[in-house]
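#struct-help
A.M.: can someone run this one for me? Single chain, 70 residues.
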Amino acid sequence: MSKQVIEFNGEPVGVVVPDHDRLKFLAVKYHVWALDAQRFSSVEEAQAAIRGLFAGPPVRANPTQAGLAA
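D.P.: on it. Structure tokens below:
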């Protein structure tokens, strides 16, 4: 394998390139920059990480509802 373009919803967002025994992700779009230079064991693992970014952060409880208000 040389390099492979990674798309999300039909838009190229990065490439993976071989890096020793792993694949290194190189971001080409700002919204996946958090994954830049991370290494993955497969293209599918990189794609799953990208999907995870677009899923958004976990919902946090409102501090007043969680009993944490001062």
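A.M.: thanks! The two ends are 56 Å apart (CA to CA).
D.P.: also worth noting: Helices lie at 43-55.
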